[in-house]
Amino acid sequence: MRVRGRPVEPLILGDAERSYLERQVRRHRVARSLSARCRIILRCADGLSSKVVAAELGVHEHTVGKWRRRFLRDRIDGLLDEPRPGRPRTIEDDQVAAVIERTLYATPDDATHWSIRSMAKETGLSHTTIRRIWTAFGLQPHRSETFKLSCDPLFVDKVRDIVGLYLSPPDRALVLCVDEKSQIQALDREQPVLPMMPGMPERRTPAFRKTSTSISSWTITPPTRRRGSRHG
Question: Which alpha helices (DSSP H) does the chain contain, by range?
Fold first, then answer.
């Protein structure tokens, strides 16, 4: 006696639906899972059974039946992944904005820049949360870039002279290097400090306004004692 199974509802595609499915199959950047589902629906629309489609595409017969039923029920939307249950979000947008604003426009009372631990203590958030926020917005308070290029046409020659004193000082000579002259303080930089921005660290010039009056280096040659001379 032949046992009849449940009748299969025919799958008929509209022109727009077929065009969309074929476009997803041809695209290279579409998710592989979505491309496979589109192939299943296209083959089922050709009148093939689930068993034949499964053997042709290398998937399980139940997989073909699952996506066939979802397409018949929800059409194209049925091929998309449903929202997965997970832990609800605990950090609000206002909290994220507050961390970003504090990182960019404020400094801690006992340090020159924020660290993950100090920001976590200040905001009451976890270390992991602060790290994720800074990483997402490209914030690096601990970094500061400097760059200086001299416009002096004799810059290379002067560098060679100065470096040469250290590498090969004159015989019986003492080479000294002085950063600043006495009674002179370099308080202001030549250019204003560029503040930290998302994706860009703080940038500052290493040159100060009064460094042009400082002495970089010189040589001092001790006096030579003559033979036969006496000092009383």
Answer: 15-26, 32-45, 50-57, 61-74, 93-105, 116-123, 127-137, 155-167
Compute the distance between CA of residue 120 and CA of residue 126 in angstroms, rounded to an integer: 6
pLDDT digits (tens, 9 = 90+) for 128-144: 999 989 988 888 888 77
pLDDT at residue 15 above 80?
yes
Q: State the Cα torsion 72-73-77-82 to the nearest 10°.
A: -120
Angle made by CA atoms 199, 202, 208, in degrees to the nearest 5: 155
Q: Please tell me the distance from the alpha carbon of residue 102 to that of residue 134, in angstroms, as a whole number.
A: 12
- Please give the single-letter amino acid code of residue 94: D
Residue 87, SS3 per DSSP: coil
The domain limits of the chain are 15-79, 93-142, 155-220
Q: Region 184-189: what's the mean pLDDT?
A: 61
165 closest CA partner among 154, 177, 153: 177
Q: Does pLDDT of 55 surpass 50?
A: yes
Give the angle subtended at the CA of 126 by the CAs of 121 and 128, to the nearest 5°: 130
CB-neighbour burial class of residue 40 (10 A; exposed 0-12, middle 13-18, buried 19+): buried
pTM score of the predicted model: 0.39
